[in-house]
Design goal:
heterodimer; A: alpha+beta; Pnp Oxidase, Chain A; 3 helices; 8 strands; 25% helix; globular; B: alpha+beta; 8-stranded antiparallel beta sheet; 24% helix
Amino acid sequence: MTVEEHIRLVLDRASIGTLYIVQDDKPTGRYMTFKSDGATLYTVTDKDSAKLMAIEKNPNVHIILGYQPGTEYNYLEFEGKVTDVMDDQLRIKMRNFFRSVFQKEAAEVTLLKIEPSVIYLHTQDGSPAQKFVLPIQ
Amino acid sequence: MDSKLQALEILKKQPYGVMGTVDGDKPYARIMTFIHDEDLTLYTIAPVHSNILKHVKHNPFTHILYGYEDHEDDVFLEIEGQVEQAEDTEKAMAVLQNYDRIHRNSFNEQHHVLLKIKPIRMRIMHTTRNEPLEVIIH
């Protein structure tokens, strides 16, 4: 299997991960639910939150997705940026997905689109992570 | 049960957490193995030539997510802390022992540094409740 295929397997299996951003020169992280479309990740956050303002100032993010200790599952690490959602069709599709997950009205949440520049595939056997560089958007 | 005891209960659940650092204007995070003291100080080890060590030398602030197990009604900690290097062979050995317990490989770096994380703010988070509980650290 190629690195890409292994990455796809984790993306298909996992939806919970950590999202770290920089806020006031400090790291700040939280657990989030993600949905992937190709290598692009989507997640939602509360509207008008301080986090959202920090992301507007500095869109750099770091995500760890699919880490499950005690299993032999691989997990992923993403370095990327939050970009806007431009596609209305996709916005509706993703919002419907997250509405079903969170039971919240779509208007209460903001959708974040995250485009990775690098993805690392981590195995739990201690071998070095495999790096997958994405083409520049 | 007071908030500090609740925090200690969560720290006892598992010996690892996700530790975030900043390098320039970029966030980074990785899974680290920890031990803790009764006063909520955390310790971890990092290889001498590691990114995390480079990061905390320039920016000592960290944010650690600890104790999440992906259950329906889960409780975990959000820890804001400040990182410093420490010298304590006993604590370093204890971290190594925890590492070996949860990994199938051994920590393959002879030259490691002990990092001490002093908590600045700790909050107990519930996945099903909106309000976090502030931990009284001191």
